[in-house]
Amino acid sequence: MFFHILLLFLLSLSGFGGGLRGVTSLGINYGQIGNNLPSPDKVLDMLTALRITKVRIYDTNPEILSAFANSKVEIIVTVENEMLAQLMDPQQALQWVTSRIKPYVPATKITGIAVGNEVFTDDDLTLMETLVPAILSIHTALTQLGLDTTIKISTPSSLAVLQESYPPSAGSFKPEITQIMSQFLQFLSTTKSPFWINAYPYFAYKDNPDSIPLQYVLLNPNPGMMDPFTNLRYDNMLYAQADAVLFAMAKMGFGGIEVRISETGWPSKGDPDETGACVENAAEYNRNLLRRQMRNEGTPLRPNLRLEIYLFALFNEDMKPGPTSERNYGLFQPDGTMVYNVGLSSFNGFSSSSSSSSSSPSSPSSSSFSPSSISLTSSASTNSKGASMGYYQSLVYWMFVYLLTYQLFIRRPLYI
């Protein structure tokens, strides 16, 4: 029996019988507020090379939905806030789904619809009142068209929906949104859809750098903090924020809903008053985030449920309003060059074509994408893993030989 158990253990180490390992819980936000972004087909080449198979866009751009057809990329599309009032009408919602969603599926893998963005923290109370009716109308339309089982509906919220978030067990929603939030959570519970949260530890650090340890928000090794009511230890703010939302939902009677991070990131540049916005911190935050995603980590409250995260963002977007940081969240410049290396692979991005020397190298049209060198796994870790696999497979082989020999001698009759 011992040898059988040992053999099974070695087989599990060798990777036999298992599927391909990937960063299955990682997605990225693909914003388009720029006048110099690459075409959707080039973006698809980039995502394919990066092995990123989950993307969120902020509209239902037909060029993107068409370009992503017959690919492995799953897409969450967005209903713009200004359309919510119109889509409260079931007929208008049916027309919207029929024209904006149905023509592209199943070739394009639309897996989610974000109805609005940060509606609960918008100053427009009328807009907030349109949210749940619009969600219900869109869901009814999906059901009528037979799409409700493959497309989940939710709405991304900012952390400002919380009245309390520290410690995580104190998490609670603001009382003024309780009624609408309860209706929304009931919908999520009924349809088994996730609660999406836009969580940015950067904002907390920027507003209070003297009180919040930088290593804690950057997901670096640090002493962390312990929730005194649950004795759960948190070594980073992002997981604490996610669990605060879980506690807030549980207090309203909805403890079974999954939390997913619809946005998180760190700016590589900012204004003088935007403390912490720099390339070094952005690289550190996203590098640590990717490492944790490769381990499919869960939060301390739900350690066995991977935390799905959508990184913000794929590109720097030069037309976004607001402070400098708003235009500098991207991993890549619009020409495909890296803003910084996240440290887990050798990124080449878009490289200038030697045959187009007369063109500007920063122009997307004069660039070609080189996918062969892109991976979320570094060459060093890949080689190390390959060596480890060879070692364990050799162990499995000799253990198997030994086991067969052992069985033959045990079963062989003895003649005296």
From TrEMBL:
Pfam families: Glyco_hydro_17 (PF00332)
Keywords: Glycosidase, Hydrolase, Membrane, Signal, Transmembrane, Transmembrane helix
Transmembrane annotation, as ranges: 391-410
Alphabetical list of Gene3D superfamilies matching this protein: Glycosidases
SUPFAM superfamilies xref list: (Trans)glycosidases
Keyword Ion transport: no
Catalytic activity: Hydrolysis of (1->3)-beta-D-glucosidic linkages in (1->3)-beta-D-glucans
EC number per UniProt: 3.2.1.39
InterPro entries: GH (IPR017853), Glyco_hydro_17 (IPR000490), Glyco_hydro_17_plant (IPR044965)
Keyword GTP-binding attached: no
A single MF term (Gene Ontology): glucan endo-1,3-beta-D-glucosidase activity
Signal peptide from the UniProt entry: 1-19
Family: Belongs to the glycosyl hydrolase 17 family.
PANTHER family xref list: GLUCAN ENDO-1,3-BETA-GLUCOSIDASE BG1-RELATED-RELATED
Protein name: glucan endo-1,3-beta-D-glucosidase
Organism of derivation: Cucumis melo
Classification of source organism: Eukaryota, Viridiplantae, Streptophyta, Embryophyta, Tracheophyta
